[in-house]
């Protein structure tokens, strides 16, 4: 009875529909609405008939039967990474494309969409796929076809294809806001669960420049494990297209579990292409297991080498001494200090390798930057010094302090075009080598010297030797009347005046503390920075010596080291007087960085006279960086001095080591409240020093 009742109901429904059809011809919208009711009633056959009728009645058919184009292959195009939109828009070799145009008729698209949904309900996914593709063919700019085609692909478990279809639809509509269309919102929603998985792309399929950029963020030792990902990765990363990955062989400054063997290094060098490595950095030869065989392989295979750094050697290694094949080598840093107190190339070990004199001489045509840690003893006797006419920067130091005086001016003959010189630490004493012998050459010594750095941790040797060393520094500052110098840093734990009050290095007098005079007086017209954390200079001398650079607007960085108080001094008097005597520099508009070291102002200051430093620093309108240290304060009191400075200045960065722990944390919060970055430590020292044009 129930089945009979349902049958009668459907017959009556059909009769009513037929009677309406007789009265008026149903519109496309009416047919779609009827089809949807049949679909809801699961009368799929009747629904299909109505949806098909809508499709045939669309004006785009122009009264003739419109077939679907079979030239398009969306799945193949998607698999090959092509444009699905272009496939839908332009690919057609049959008569359909010539006979019919695209169609954006909403009822035509709806009818196809509902018919595809009906086929889905009937589990006829192949036919549903064809209708979905037909929608895409008719209206490739609308989201409808992408939505339906993506859904059918998901029902077929072809999730990657579905993701590509959804993505193609989003790309075509990227100019439209997401909220501009409900269908577009559905498109984003449908893609979301697939996007996290399928949006990931094998980086090696990207353009070479992007691949190189990605791998540039890896340390060099992290690249070889990438070869184990798969054969394709190994083949691609070791191909000539990516040879630059293997040209900067920078090994870590830490222990290595598996240092590269000789054979592995040989392969890496072959992957680097013609000329081998451009940069070789081995900070820890011991953990790298650097042998004579490895060193020779690295150097001889890298004929286009530009940068070489070898860390401390416990045993001297032989460098190639015959070949003149390094025409591009510009930077060499060698460390012969090893584990012992003497360099690996000291006299006792010369037979094991010795200082690489010939290697450096053979690279003289290109070598511009040299760093030597562990000065060969022969240099003190003016022997075994390479001749490097193009050398611009030299940094030399020892790990242990030698009492011998170093004959610094002899280096001017070996390195005539030197621009930057850094001496120390642990080369505390310099020697003029009989200044009279250099008088005739004085006008030609280091005419291009722009940076002079001298640092020692302690004064070593008899008074006469120390005074001679400081006199040598003074002569170096007199070269070219001091006008070629841009940056000076002297970290010497002493004062510029001797016990008799006579200037040692910087002087407001034209005479040396010696019978031999140099014919120039330093003017420092181009000085950009004077840095020192320990070398105290009287304000009167500073004013005379450095006012030229200040008046010219060149001086941008200046450090003030305060004198040490005696036991009989009232606390704060010396520092207050010392700062007051620096009024000559107060408020200078060119000063951007300043250092204040070793001061001691009054305890419990009642006014600016008791603590004048904040007001002094506030007078510089462009001051951004402050380096401040003093061993004469307890942490809490020192923090109060810095807090007072923060209130009055417009600094951006402060460096200090005078507070730490909880006090540092509290002071850092105060600094952040003023927009200042408080850093524990010293300002970074770049080498070579950047020289602005």
UniProtKB/TrEMBL annotation:
MF terms in GO: Hsp90 protein binding
Listed CDD domains: F-box_SF
Gene3D superfamilies: 1.20.1280.50, Ribonuclease Inhibitor, Tetratricopeptide repeat domain
Domain F-box: 200-249
InterPro entries: F-box-like_dom_sf, F-box_dom, LRR_dom_sf, TPR-like_helical_dom_sf, TPR_rpt
Signal peptide: none
Keywords from the named record: Repeat, TPR repeat
SMART domains: FBOX (SM00256), TPR (SM00028)
Chain segments annotated as transmembrane: none
Protein name per UniProt: F-box domain-containing protein
Organism encoding this protein: Claviceps africana
């Amino acid at each position: 009875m129930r089945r009979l009742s349902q049958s009668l109901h459907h017959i009556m429904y059909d009769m009513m529909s037929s009677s309406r059809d007789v009265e008026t011809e149903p519109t496309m919208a009416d047919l779609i609405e009827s089809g949807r009711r049949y679909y809801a009633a699961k009368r799929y056959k009747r629904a299909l008939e109505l949806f098909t009728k809508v499709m045939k009645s669309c004006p785009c058919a122009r009264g003739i039967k419109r077939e679907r184009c079979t030239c398009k292959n969306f799945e193949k195009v998607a698999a090959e990474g092509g444009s699905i939109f272009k496939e839908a828009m332009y690919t057609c070799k049959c008569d359909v494309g010539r006979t019919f145009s695209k169609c954006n008729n909403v009822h035509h698209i709806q009818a196809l969409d509902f018919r595809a949904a009906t086929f889905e309900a009937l589990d006829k996914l192949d036919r549903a796929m064809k209708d979905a593709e037909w929608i895409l063919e008719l209206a490739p700019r609308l989201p409808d076809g992408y939505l339906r085609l993506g859904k059918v692909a998901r029902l077929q478990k072809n999730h990657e294809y579905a993701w590509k279809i959804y993505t193609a639809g989003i790309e075509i509509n990227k100019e439209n806001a997401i909220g501009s269309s409900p269908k577009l919102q559905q498109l984003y929603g449908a893609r979301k669960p697939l996007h996290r998985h399928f949006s990931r792309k094998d980086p090696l399929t990207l353009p070479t420049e992007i691949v190189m950029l990605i791998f540039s963020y890896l340390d060099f030792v992290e690249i070889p494990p990438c070869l184990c990902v798969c054969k394709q990765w190994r083949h691609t990363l070791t191909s000539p297209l990516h040879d630059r990955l293997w040209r900067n062989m920078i090994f870590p400054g830490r222990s290595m579990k598996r240092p590269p063997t000789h054979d592995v290094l040989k392969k890496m060098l072959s992957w680097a292409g013609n000329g081998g490595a451009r940069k070789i950095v081995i900070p820890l030869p011991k953990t790298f297991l650097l042998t004579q065989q490895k060193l020779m392989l690295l150097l001889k295979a890298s004929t286009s080498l530009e940068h070489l750094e070898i860390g401390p050697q416990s045993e001297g290694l032989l460098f190639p001494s015959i070949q003149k094949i390094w025409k591009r080598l510009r930077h060499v840093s060698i460390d012969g200090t090893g584990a012992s107190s003497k360099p690996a190339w000291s006299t006792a070990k010369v037979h094991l390798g010795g200082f690489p004199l010939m290697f450096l001489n053979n690279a003289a045509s290109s070598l511009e930057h040299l760093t030597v840690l562990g000065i060969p003893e022969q240099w003190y006797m003016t022997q075994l010094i390479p001749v490097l006419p193009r050398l611009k920067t030299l940094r030399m130091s020892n790990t242990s302090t030698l009492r011998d005086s170093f004959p610094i001016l002899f280096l001017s003959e070996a390195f005539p075009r030197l621009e930057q010189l850094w001496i120390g630490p642990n080369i505390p004493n310099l020697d003029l080598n009989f200044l009279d012998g250099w008088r005739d050459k004085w006008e030609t010594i280091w005419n291009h010297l722009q940076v002079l750095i001298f640092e020692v941790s302690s004064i070593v040797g008899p008074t006469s030797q120390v005074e001679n060393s400081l006199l040598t520094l003074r002569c170096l500052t007199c070269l070219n009347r001091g006008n070629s110098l841009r940056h000076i840093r002297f970290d010497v734990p002493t004062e510029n005046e001797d016990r008799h009050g006579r200037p040692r290095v910087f002087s407001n007098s034209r005479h040396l503390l010696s019978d031999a005079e140099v014919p120039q007086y330093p003017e420092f017209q181009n000085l950009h920075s004077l840095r020192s954390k320990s070398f105290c200079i009287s304000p009167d001398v500073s004013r005379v010596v450095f006012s030229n650079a200040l008046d010219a607007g060149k001086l941008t960085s200046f450090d003030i080291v305060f004198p040490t108080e005696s036991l009989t001094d009232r606390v704060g008097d010396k520092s207050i007087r010392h700062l007051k005597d620096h009024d000559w520099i107060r408020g200078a508009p060119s000063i951007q960085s300043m250092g204040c070291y070793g001061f001691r102002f009054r305890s419990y200051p009642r006014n600016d006279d008791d603590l004048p430093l904040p007001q002094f620093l506030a007078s510089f309108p462009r001051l951004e960086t402050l380096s401040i240290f003093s061993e004469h304060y307890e942490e809490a009191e020192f923090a109060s001095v810095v807090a007072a400075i923060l209130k009055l200045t417009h600094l951006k960065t402060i460096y200090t080591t005078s507070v730490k722990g909880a006090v540092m944390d509290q002071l850092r919060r105060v600094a952040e409240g003023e927009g200042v970055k408080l850093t524990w430590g010293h300002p970074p020292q770049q080498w070579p020093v950047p020289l602005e044009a």
